[in-house]
Design brief:
Blueprint: H1 6-17, H2 23-39, H3 50-62, H4 67-88, H5 113-121, H6 131-146, H7 150-154, E1 156-157, E2 170-173, E3 178-182, E4 188-192, H8 195-207, H9 220-224, H10 237-250, H11 259-274, H12 277-284, H13 289-292, H14 294-310
Parallel strand pairs: 1-2
Antiparallel strand pairs: 2-3, 3-4
Helix pairs in contact: 2-4, 6-8, 6-11, 11-12, 11-14
Length: 335
C-alpha cells in the first residue's frame, strides 16, 4: 500500500474538489494514511483488517501519539475506507467500530474582555501608522469581531471574484458590514463585522496598495486577497500567528495569544452577554451544537469567579480558600 496509489490520490482529489477541504486538512489526512503505510508496508487495501487497524492504533499510542491525534487518524482511515468501499462496491470498512483513547476535555483558552481590549485598543502603544500595522489591526479586529478560524481569515478576498481560473470562497462585503466565509466541510456562513472592525478594514484598504509590488507576477488568488504579506502575495497563516504573538507581547499581556484565542474569546464573550447558544453555534459555523456547548463551561467559570469575588460568604465555602482575596485554591489549569 503506497501513498501515491491511485485510490488515495483520487480520494484526496475528491475531498479537495467536491468537499472543498483545506490544504491543511488534506495534509493532515495524508500524514494519517502515511502511518498505515509505515506500519504495514507490504499490505494492500483489500488485506487490511479491523484487527490490524486496532493494532495500528495501539502501536501509535505506544509511540507517544496523543488521543486527539489518534482520533483524527481514525477519522481519516474511516472516511477513506468508506469512500473506497463505496467506490468499489464493497460493504466492508475495516476501520468501523474502532475507538481512539478518550480525549481529555479541556476548556478553550479565551482572553478576558479586559485582555482583549488591551490587545485591540493598544492603550500603551502608538496608533498604527504603517501598512503592516494597519493590516494587522484589521486582521485581529476581524478575527475577534467574526470569530473566524485562521484558515478562513487568510482565505478572505476583497470582494467576490470569479474568473476563468479563480473563484472566491470567502470574501469581504463592506457595504453590508459582513464577511461571507466558506468554513469546514464547504459550509458557507455570513459573519457580521462590528463597527471597529469595519473602521480598521477601511484604513487597511487605503494602505493595501503600498504592499503590492508593480511588475511582480501574481496569481489570481494573490490579486484578489484581502490581506497581503510584505511581498504582495496572499498572507500566510504563519505570518498572522507571528504578528499576533508579537503584538500581545508588546501590549504586555501575560498569556500566549494565538489566532484561535480570539475565536474562543469571541464565542465566550458573546455567550456571556447574549446567553444564546444557537446563535453562537451559527456564528462559529459549528455543525453540531455539542461543539459549541463547551463555551457554556467557560461562561459558568466566569460566573463562578464573579460569585467568589462578590458574595460576602463565598470565601467560606471551602476552609482552604484564601480569605484575603476570596479566590478558590488552584485546582489546575482549566482555561
Amino acid at each position: 500500500m503506497t501513498l501515491d496509489g491511485d485510490p488515495i490520490r483520487r480520494w484526496l482529489a475528491h475531498l479537495s474538489a467536491e468537499r472543498r477541504y483545506s490544504h491543511h486538512t488534506l495534509a493532515g489526512y495524508t500524514h494519517d494514511l502515511d502511518h498505515l503505510q509505515r506500519l504495514y508496508p507490504d499490505a494492500t487495501l483489500e488485506s487490511l483488517s479491523n484487527s490490524q487497524l486496532r493494532q495500528a492504533v495501539a502501536r501509535l499510542h505506544a509511540e507517544g501519539q496523543k488521543p486527539r491525534s489518534l482520533a483524527r487518524a481514525l477519522a481519516a482511515w474511516r472516511s477513506f475506507f468508506q469512500w473506497w468501499a463505496t467506490t468499489t462496491g464493497q460493504d466492508h470498512n475495516p476501520a468501523h467500530g474502532i475507538r481512539a483513547p478518550k480525549i481529555p476535555r479541556g476548556l478553550p483558552k479565551a482572553l478576558s474582555v479586559e485582555q482583549t481590549q488591551v490587545l485591540l485598543d493598544r492603550p500603551n502603544l502608538p496608533s498604527p501608522s504603517t501598512p503592516v500595522a494597519h493590516r494587522d489591526q484589521a486582521m485581529f479586529e476581524i478575527l475577534y469581531s467574526c470569530g473566524l478560524r485562521l484558515s478562513e481569515l487568510v482565505s478572505l478576498d476583497i470582494t467576490y471574484t470569479r474568473t476563468a481560473d479563480y473563484t472566491s470562497t470567502s470574501w469581504l462585503a463592506l457595504d453590508t458590514a459582513e464577511v461571507i466565509v466558506t468554513g469546514k466541510g464547504g459550509k458557507m456562513r455570513h459573519a457580521p463585522l462590528g463597527r471597529q472592525a469595519v473602521a480598521a478594514t477601511e484604513q487597511w484598504l487605503n494602505e493595501r496598495s503600498r504592499l503590492t509590488r508593480p511588475g511582480t507576477a501574481l496569481s489570481a488568488s494573490d490579486t484578489a486577497a484581502l490581506f497581503l504579506g510584505e511581498r504582495g502575495r496572499r498572507i500566510s497563516p504563519r505570518v498572522v500567528q507571528l504578528q499576533l504573538e508579537k503584538l500581545a507581547k508588546q501590549a504586555g499581556l501575560p498569556v500566549h495569544v494565538h489566532p484561535h484565542s480570539l475565536r474562543h474569546s469571541f464565542a465566550s464573550h458573546v455567550l456571556q452577554s447574549a446567553q444564546d447558544l444557537r446563535a453562537v453555534q451559527e456564528l462559529l459555523g459549528h455543525a453540531n451544537i455539542s461543539t459549541t456547548q463547551i463555551y457554556t463551561r467557560l461562561d459558568f467559570q466566569h460566573l463562578a469567579q464573579v460569585y467568589d469575588k462578590a458574595h460576602p460568604r463565598a470565601n467560606r465555602r471551602n476552609p482552604t480558600d484564601n480569605a484575603a482575596t476570596g479566590e478558590r485554591p488552584d485546582s489546575g489549569d482549566t482555561t
